[in-house]
Structures are given as C-alpha cells and as structure tokens.
Amino acid sequence: MLRALFTSSTGMKAQQLYVDTIANNLANVNTTGFKKSRVDFQDLIYQTLKAGGSETADGNQVPEGMQVGLGVKPVSIAKLFSQGTISLTGNDLDFAIEGDGFFQILQPNGTIAYTRDGAFNIDANGNLVTNDGFFLEPAISIPANAKKVSIGQDGSVSALLDDNTIANIGQIEIATFINPSGLSAEGRNLLIETAASGPPSTGTPGLESRGTLAQGFLELSNVQLVDELVNMIIAQRAYEVNSRAIRTSDEMLQTANQLR
Q1: Which of 59, 84, 100, 189 is buried deepest, with most CB atoms within 10 A?
Q2: Residue 77 DSSP SS3
Q3: What region does 233 belong to: left with phi over 0, alpha with psi -120 to 50, or beta?
Q4: 242 and 169 co-located in one domain
Q5: Phi/psi zone of residue 86: left (φ > 0), alpha (ψ -120 to 50 degrees), beta?
Q6: Residues 107 and 125 in one domain
Q7: In this predicted structure, what is the pLDDT of residue 57?
Q8: Inter-residue contact 4 to 249 (CB < 8 Å)
Q9: How far is CA 232 from the centre of its chain?
C-alpha cells in the first residue's frame, strides 16, 4: 500500500508537467514561428518479487516472474518542428521559410541565435532587424532611396531605387541542424545551438535540403488547438485516476490500522 502511494505520486507529478507543457503550447498558439512541445515519459525501475524462469522447490521452472513497477518519470520535452500554416500578410519585410531551416540572428552579446519568426523591420540605419532590434545575419542594409524591396526564393535581396534601377543589396542565408530538437529555447522566439543539436549548416535557401523563402508571408505556430485540448483532457483524467489510487491506498491503510 505504501508502494502504491509513492507510485501514484510519480504519476501525478508527471501529469502536472504534461499539463504545464500543454499550457505553454496553448499560450503560444498565435506566436509566429512557434513550435509546439511534447513530453516523453519512461517507466521507473521494477521491484522483482520472483524472477521469471526460476525453479520451484520441486524443480519445476516458473514460466513468468513477478515484478512490480515503481511509477513513471518524464525524460524529455521535445520540440516538434513540423511546418506551421503559412499566412499571407502582404508586408514586404515578412518572410516565411517553406521547409527546413532557421533565420540567423545576431544577439547583442555577439552570439548567433536561430528563429523561424520571419517578421522583420528596418531600423534607423536601414538594417533588417527583429522586433527586438536584433540584426539579421548576414546583415542586410536597405538603401534610403529604395522604393521597394524584393526577396527571391533563394534569399537574394534586391531593391528598386528612386531612379527605377534595381540594385542587389544582399543575400539571406538560413541554417539547418542535424537535430533541431536539441536546440535550446531562449525566449523571444530564439533558439541557440547546443551539443545535442550539432553545429549549424548555413547556406543559400533551396540548396542542400534547405527550405525556400516566401516574401509577404509568415509561418504561424504549429499548435493545433483541438489536439492540445484533447491532450489536456487525457492528462486531467490521468491525474484524477492517480489521485484516486492514492485515496484508495490511504483507505486500505486506514482499514488495516483499525484491525483489532
């Protein structure tokens, strides 16, 4: 009975973490480029009461053993990098990546972060920056006399100038990772490289399995509301069942304590 109390408590803790993850997914349902997370679980060690294949007193071999599990534990919270819905915005400085890859963002500390959020702006010096003012890497500078900016699927950037000439002003590169789920989320729609993600492979969009760019579009969150609500119901019911197991074990202990 005491074993059941501790086993059920691991289940309640695991389901609480599951609900926390679902809540974060739902909170970011309208976050540009957000990728939902999934919790993975593993069972804990087992207490062996009788080993399978052991011999009985009369020399027979038991076909099955007796093992009692001791609960569950969360082992990872993985980001799922499935493609989000591509939404038309009509803004020339909105870019969506169709396929694999990340925009490279230069942080104030000099390190590179990565994002799927393609909502860019122009700062006072004509540089392409994120909503937080972080520079796109490699840097793209828009001339002051540019009337229109065009981005090709391959990331080539050109500007139509006042004199109706077209100037090539830069090249957007994107990065891919062998294990994007290993990237560390830092907030602000930014991810950073880790030992688990491996080093980035940067280059021209559309080449070497990299995605292509779409100007005037944004990639929305890949969170599906219906799926998350169903997962929340499942987690809630599992939490309730584990709490009921604790209550049942407590009642059994109470009954045992009342024996005369």
Answers
A1: 189
A2: strand
A3: alpha
A4: no
A5: beta
A6: yes
A7: 67
A8: yes
A9: 17
The answer to whether residues 56 and 128 belong to one domain is no
CA distance 41 to 121: 41
Dump pLDDT digits (tens) for 60-80: 777 787 889 999 999 999 999
The reply to whether 188 and 100 lie within a common domain is: yes
8 A C-beta contact, residue 103 and residue 82: no
Total domains, the chain = 2
Which residue has tokens 């729609």?
A: 189
pLDDT at residue 119 tops 80: yes
Same domain, 133 and 245: no
Same domain flag for 134 and 25: no
- How many CB atoms within 10 Å of residue 142? 18
| 120 contacts 130 by C-beta, under 8 angstroms | yes
| Confidence (pTM) | 0.89
- Given this model, what pLDDT does residue 1 score? 61
Domain extent at residue 137: 86-219
